[in-house]
């Protein structure tokens, strides 16, 4: 739970992140993830479906990258906030840190992004 004065807590659903995809030896995935990968994001006080948009098209297990993260709903966040990505809400496959918080974007589903293309969608 976050507690703060009015307008003291930032909420958003769009971030620039640093992400590390755990290797299979570290208990992570055997296969790579592609840009557009959607899974549950767990933070200290909330969990939410999120979609990754990688600067390269693919991220292999054991690799680190900078990427964008889009959530369906606005959540309370701050810069340097850590998070994890879990498959099936059980197995941690990645760890990340929010590096930059952008103004929220309006979307009803991740299909909105797919239909318009990520770059076109965020420029609206």
UniProtKB/TrEMBL annotation:
**Record Pfam families:** GTP_EFTU_D3
The record's InterPro entries line, in alphabetical order, gives:
EF-Tu_GTPase, Transl_elong_EF1A/Init_IF2_C, Transl_elong_EFTu/EF1A_C
User: Can you provide one Gene Ontology molecular function annotated for this UniProt record?
Assistant: GTP binding
Query: Which keywords are on file for this protein?
Result: Elongation factor, GTP-binding, Nucleotide-binding, Protein biosynthesis
> Is Transit peptide set as a keyword in this record?
no
The UniProt entry's GO biological process terms, in alphabetical order, are:
mitochondrial translational elongation
Domain Translation elongation factor EFTu/EF1A C-terminal residue range list? 10-101
According to the UniProt record, one GO cellular component term is: mitochondrion
Name of the protein in its database record:
BMA-TUFM-2, isoform c
- Organism per entry: Brugia malayi
What gene codes for this chain? Answer: bma-tufm-2
């Amino acid at each position: 739970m976050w507690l703060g004065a009015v307008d003291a807590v930032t909420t958003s659903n769009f971030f620039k992140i640093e992400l590390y995809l755990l290797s299979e030896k570290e208990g992570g995935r055997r296969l790579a993830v592609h840009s557009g990968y959607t899974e549950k994001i767990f933070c200290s006080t909330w969990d939410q479906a999120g979609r990754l948009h990688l600067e390269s098209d693919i991220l292999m297990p054991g690799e680190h990258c900078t990427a964008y993260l889009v959530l369906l709903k606005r959540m309370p966040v701050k810069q340097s906030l850590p998070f994890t990505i879990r498959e099936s809400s059980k197995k941690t496959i990645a760890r990340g840190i929010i590096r930059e918080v952008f103004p929220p974007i309006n979307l009803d589903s991740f299909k909105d992004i797919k239909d318009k293309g990520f770059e076109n969608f965020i420029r609206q």
